[in-house]
Amino acid sequence: MNLASLEPKHIVAGVLGILFLYLFMLPIAWPDPEVEAEIPVNAVIGQDIQIPITISAWHSNVDIYMVRFYTDYHGSTAHGPEGLFNPTPVLEREARRFVGVWGYNHMTFPWSETIYVTVPLSRFAGEGLLGPGVLKGKVDVNFNYRPGHVGRYGPAHDYTQQRMLSVPFEIAIAER
């Protein structure tokens, strides 16, 4: 077959077919997003820690809307004179939704976003809720995303899925 012998309508049909496969069929294979958090293994009692949280997916239809810092009361030894602090939200914002056929990005490409959250260890130490020792727990990351599998199509259908992924941690808290 000679490319020069193809009619323009066949070329246009082929390009539109490939575009349809890329924009509407390839998203069916999107895996769920993955989360990573770089939590330090050592911290000083009077200093806050900053945690970078990275979420990765095959598309950009992901939105982190809440991050909570949970402590394991019984597994931790870093109790202060007043006990140990309660689970603490370190990020709270309005969640993005993915509504309708055109309410999300159809493009498939490696995508990631890193956000930074600050855990106020100095405040907890000042309130008597943190002392030297080992602090165990998890960072819970709540996010909305557009899943790859197809469901009903419609101009107002909400494709948004919510998910929470946890990253465990163990931090040695020193006095100075």
How much of the sequence lies in strands comes to 35-45%
Number of β-strand runs: 8
Count of DSSP H/I helices:
2
Low confidence ranges: none
Termini Cα gap: 76 Å
Q: Mind summarizing the main beta sheet?
A: 5 strands, mixed
Task: Report the radius of gyration as a whole number of Å.
Answer: 23 Å
Classify the secondary structure makeup into a structural class.
mainly beta
Sequence of strands across the biggest β-sheet: 2-8-7-4-5
Element pattern in H and E: HEEEEEEHEE
Net shape: elongated
Q: Helix content range of the residues, please? A: 10-25%
The residue-averaged pLDDT reads: 90
Question: What does this protein structure show overall?
Answer:
- With 176 residues, the chain is mainly beta.
- The protein is 14% helix and 38% strand.
- It contains two helices and eight strands.
- Strands 2-8-7-4-5 form a five-stranded mixed β-sheet, with no helix packed on it. Strands 1-3-6 form a three-stranded antiparallel β-sheet, with no helix packed on it.
- The protein is elongated.
